[in-house]
Amino acid sequence: MNKIQPGILASVPSVARHLSFVLEPDAGPGPALERLAKSVDPGRTVVGIGRSTALALGRHVAGLRDFPSGAGRGFEIPATPGALWCWLRGDDRGELIHRTRSIEALLGPAFRLDAVVDAFMHQEGRDLTGYEDGTENPTGGNAIAAASLGGAGPGLDGSSFAAVQQWVHDLEAFDALGPEEQDLSVGRRRSDNAEIDEAPASAHVKRTAQESFSPEAFVLRRSMPWAEGTRAGLVFLAFGRSFDAFEAQLGRMTGLDDGITDSLFRFTRPVTGAYYWCPPVSGGRLDLRALGLR
Ligand code: HEM
Hints:
Bound molecules: protoporphyrin IX containing FE
Strand content: 25-35%
Helix content: 25-40%
Number of helices: 8
Radius of gyration: 19 Å
């Protein structure tokens, strides 16, 4: 029986919200998390626990570690950890606002809402640059295997490890590249999504080709565009059975192994980066046994 939060496996919704919370000083997060587990539907609200919350509960969740900040040639990879993350999925922005308010009420006073990012589907699932996103995602049993832990025992089987990064696009810089350079930067044609075999090693899909890593580095991506005023970009979201595959991909994009930087950095930069452990579900609700909670 598959125990992963069902909202992780479901396809990208039409609207979503990312909420990140901090823990108030001396707050015991246990009762707030138990209230959350009793109330949320994990098909509509995906919940991730930050390392600081596990530590506040005196627990260590195997595999939950700090997001690796770093730098590449002329850009930063920031780490902006949070105590708790909720990914609200839906089809009505107003409903997400009201759901946010009820989650805030459930989690207070221990957790304080620190940041909200509204995300949305563009066309049939494209980045704001117009490229289809998610094509090479694993599906069916392969998606479950890529995105969730198995064989780790009750309370851990079905866990997923979420990497969340908000990227800000410079759409003027992107436009200035022109259609051919744009396709070569991504490594796919925007017109028909075909992969460009002769794209340079800096092309995004050449950097991140999941089968090209050893071991293979498969993740389940659920990224969506975001926009606020005149700023816009992508909330990158990947679920793994550990953080290893994401870290291998990010390392390649940054140029850590061979000095080649992903061409995406010509027009987009990450401004946040956080890791969360997404507990499994049992009987349709979050299973917080690994945190010593009910
Ligand atoms: C603004 C940032 C990003 C944009 C606009 C973007 C866009 C895309 C697009 C258009 C594709 C091709 C279609 C597809 O297979 O989904 C793709 C593939 C992919 N991206 Fe990204 N991406 C971004 C960031 C990242 C990051 C940070 C990672 C991981 C560290 C990543 C990992 C991947 C992977 C694994 C693939 C599939 C590669 C394959 O196996 O062919 N992407 N991305």
